[in-house]
Structures are given as structure tokens and as C-alpha cells.
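Can anyone check this?
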Amino acid sequence: MDVPDSPGLYCIRLKDKVKFPTNYGQLRRDRIIYIGQASTSLRKRLWEQELNHKSAATFFRSIGAILGYLPPAGSLYGKKTRNYKFSPEDTERIRKWIKQSLEVSFVEFDTAHMDDVEKALIGEYMPLVNIEHNPGASDALKAARNACVYHAQKPVSDGPFTNNFDPYFFSEYEKALAEDELRKKRNKEAEVKPWYKDINAWAWIVTGVCILAIIVIMVMDSVDEKRAKANQHRPRSYEEIFTPEEQKKMGIGGHIDGPGDWKPDPNTAQKAREFIEKGGNADPRLDAIQDGDYHDLLDQMGGPEGF
């Protein structure tokens, strides 16, 4: 957000369909919940303080109280200030809610009349989160903020502690305590690691290596299968069929594509013709190829042109 480093007024409203606790009053149709001023810098007051709580901010503390958060117990014990702060974890959750749920408008404004204008706007619009200058200020919001102050100022031990609060806030304080405990329980449950994060890292590494090995083996088997299928009907040479000793004994050498490499069978041509007449393959040499006997067939027929 590009917020100017100059004085001005700002307005904060709820986004459409964002729900707001009903016990803090009736939400306006324009959904405005807060009007404020920045006497020196909109960037510092609005962006850094009110929306991100980098330092004391009335609006941020009020939103945290409305959402049911409590500051750490005893965090203001022995201090005069009422400016409580939430834990870093809760502060981040409130920031996230603000970012997701709110819209902001601002205008640079002369400081000479800023107080009067802010007071008039709050009096007219009566935003739910404004307390000062608001004739319709929410008692529930006052009680919720007082509950946060009480929780932060009381000692950590269960010893006696008194403070001057409106009695109305004690019921809100009890509600805030209950909500805070419930929220902590839910957050703790949400932080439980899923099953896959509980497994040792080495187990994941071993599993990954095994899966990779299986994939490699499957790919290699597929390649070998395709290669074997491609070579299934490939004519074989005499060197692939006979050992050198067998070749020498049979007097085979040079090639087997011509007459003389194999002992001719004078009846081969007649057998091939009978095969065709009985409905066999139009070219019996194809069947011979499938049997790995391509060269045998050619030789016994007198070579490629013998049939």
C-alpha cells in the first residue's frame, strides 16, 4: 500500500461478506468501523501502527480484543501504562485477519482543523470500533479492552489483585479467557505435524531411490522388449547361427546368399508352390523369414531369383 508520509484522515471498513461480532453493535450499511487521524504521518500512524502494530495503536488493540485475544498475563504488571500488547504469534494472526478482512481509505488533510473534522465525522457515523467522541460507543468493546488491560496488569501468580474497572467487564473477561483457551487449543492442534512430516528424512530418501530404481528397470525392460520385437523377424547370417568350427566343418564361408552355401533340396520349389496353392502367404519367403530360414530358402531355390 502506497501511503503518504503526511498528515491526514483515514477510514477503515469491513470488506463485503466479512462477519463481525454482533454484541458490539449494529454494523452500518457502508461497513465503516473506524475513523482516525494522523497528525504527522499517515504512513506511520495508519500503516505501521493501526494495521501492523509496530508500536502502540488504539485500533489494533481494539480489534484484537474484539477477536477475543488477550495479551500475555502479567505483561503490564507494575507498569502505569494501559497500552497492552499481544504475543508475537497472536499479533501475526491479528495482522492476517486485518489484511484479509478490511479496506482502508485516507486523505491528506490540513492539521489546523483536523481535530474538529475527525470529531464531527465520528459523531455522525458512530463507527463501532471508535470509543472517544462516539456518542454510541460500544459498552462491550470497553469491557473487552478493560479485560485485556486487567489480564496484562494482574500478577502472574494467583494472588489478590484489584483494579478500578466497570463491573460489566468481568463477564466479558471470563468470555475472553474461555475463548483464549479454546483458541490456544485449536492452534496447538493445527500445529501437529501431518504424518508425512513425522517420517525420518532418510526414510524419504531411501523410498525415493527405490522408486527411481524401479522406474529405471521398467524403462530398460521396455527398451529390451521393443528391441527383441524389432529383431524377431530379422534375417540371420550364418555367423549368428553357426560357430566357426561348425562353419569350417560345413564348408560355409563368405556369404550364404548364393547357391552352394547350403545343400540344395530339389523339392523345395515344389513345396513352396504347393504351400501357395493351399492358401499360404503369397510370398513363402516371408514365412521363411519368420522362421529365421530366409537364406536357407533362397539357397535351396537357387538364390533370390530362383523362385
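Reply from J.R.: I decoded it. The radius of gyration is 45 Å.
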